[in-house]
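Aim 2, interim progress. The first record below pairs a target sequence with its structure tokens.
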Amino acid sequence: MVDFGGQTIGTAGQRQTIRIANTGPGVLPITKVSVHGIDAEAFSVARDECTGASLAVGETCEIEVVVNPSVEGRLSATLRVVSNEDSKDIVLFVKAIAAQPVPALNPGIPVPTLNLSMLTFLAGLLGWLGLSRHRRWMGLGRTE
């Protein structure tokens, strides 16, 4: 099983490499690599060096699969590596969980920042207005 984990809708995930090895006996001819299943459109073969290969015993080839979900939820499909000998087909399960992107905080609104000179100015302004710990500001007037 190939587990892509959590993925954001509309963005391609990391490619997962799958290595196919011929452990014998005999040659393993590979005629096709494809993705099937209810969520097959969310997964794709990004690189395929196996289709058309005839692997001798001990040889390998690689396939890269990527997920790019368009819907939210749990996604699953099967990756099928077809040999011209039916008994040698390889079926792998692929899965991912797709979620909506996290919205940016206050998009388009700048976040104010204060620096030391602004803080010094504000402290001086409060002192000039007569606001100190011995006086209270009440509505529009001041009381002592």
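The second target in this work package is listed in the same format:
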Amino acid sequence: MSNFGLKNRIGAALLLSLLAGVLPAEARAQSPTAGASSGTSSSSPGAAPKSKAEVLALLYKVYDQSYHFGDAVAKLPAGDWKFGGHKRDVFYEKAYAVRASVTALGKPWDQFYKQPDDAALGRQTLSAIHAVTTQMNEFLAALADTPGASEVAELKPMATAVAESENDLTPYVSYLEASAKAPESAVSAAASTSPPAPPATAPSQPSTPAKAEASPAASAPSAVTPAPAQPSAETAAPASPAPAAAPATPAVTPVAMAPADVQALLYKIYEVTFRIGDLAGSLQADKWNLSSGDRAAFAAKLDALRGTLATAEKARSDFYKHPDDAGLAQTTASDLQALNPKLDEFVAALSGTPAATSAPEFKQAGDDLKALDGHLDPYVAFLTAKSQPATSPGGVALETENIATPESIEPLKSGVVEAAPADQEQVKTLLYKAYVPAFRLKDMLAQEHPDRWHASQADRTAFDDASKALSDRIAELEKWRDQFEGHPDSLEAAFETYASLGKLIVPADVVGRLVGQYGNAGIGAEYGQRAEQLQESRDQIEPYLDYLLRHHDHTSGAIERAFVACENQLGYAMRPGVQQAVSMKNINPVFQGRGKSTVRGRKKPAVRRVTKPASTTTPASH
């Protein structure tokens, strides 16, 4: 059991390292808390899920820990323990119940994994996980009253991990349910709420909206206009409150922010809005003793608040994905500002209900939201100013000079533009999906004891060879899988991961056949199931590998063609500036005579040349 617990802790550490690459830094540091009065417990230290990849990772964590727990329960040597009949009956009853709950979790878990946006499937899965957690705790209590009480320390972390995963998934499922109810709530709110009455104005003030909203700059000329020498009372009275009717709006200084800081601020806003929605969801208004009119009015305010929260969350989520988009920034700021009046109206309606004691919590959340909105406004102003055309001091728009690119130069481009079949987050999810069966194979392989089998020497040798090959290839898969996860665009890492997955299937089948023949038949069958899961993961990675290969070929061809075109253009461009070749002067060579030669290994004697002396006398004439 100690080896099993060590493997479990290693798997949990690897899972947390995977989640650390999915969540933003601010999301890993903070998490929204669930309502104190709700039926479920508050959120665990893990952050609330915000992406499909994280939800799938949490679901795999639940599956992995639940399966390990059920497998560990099945391996307990309860038949060798000596304890009373009643305790034995209770133990086996709880053991059967916990394994049945794990089996019942399989169907909703599988459906929710395939459709992580379905609120109904999320609630069913959460209920099944809660049943598993309850049965685990009851089994641990029964196990503590048996001779196997020492095993509780090994099983307790698994039950705790499943309970933490349940708390981590609870906010996400609540959000899905609130999002599903938001459209209906918005329609009912629009039908039941009447438009707010216009603010009361003094009879002496002008009724024209343009004058009521006049800025200080517009009212400045009237202040310097010379007044009559003796103004009457009628004209002086309405003129005095005019400057107060249009207060000066403090200008927001644009401030640039890094995308990571913007996302961290948006996540804090998400925490506050989630807290408001959680508090509103914990109110049990249907059990209050209210009149039908008061109940309808309160329900209208509640639906209006939920509809505004859903609208603001959609804009915030889009802005979180694109923190440089000025339009999304303005929409988010506008929706957050519209949320504050709705919250104030809801708090006012809450004061006359049995839940009036929770009004301070809503007020505190509203104050936090206003403060965060104030921190976001400078960045929204920065994006707005950045998106507008620049103007000169005279008010004339500045035009940027467009420098045309020479027509002879073509940009580097590939012949085929193809979209990737999966993004980086989906690739990481596929890699984690391949990690689970590989980790399980490694875990089962460490617990085998072939020395206890009644097998022939040939089968023992076959098992040793297959188990060693399987262990080495799992280690090789982990090496390439980590590299592929860190560099999803690496063709080498993708191919080696794909090849490593295929190398595990044959030795896993051999080990499973021998374990099923001489050991536990159920464990032997599981080897085959894990091998099929590895083959399925390999098939899912294959389209992405094909895309990387095609992309590499297209990119290499584009670079080669670009180099050829560049070479030709450079040659044509340099040809006019190259000087013509100058013919070399013809020079007659001067020979200095032959060197010493050898004949049959001996030096050939030099030929002595006799030169005829020049005649000093002239020949006689005949």
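The radius of gyration is 41 Å. This observation will shape the mutagenesis plan for the next reporting period.
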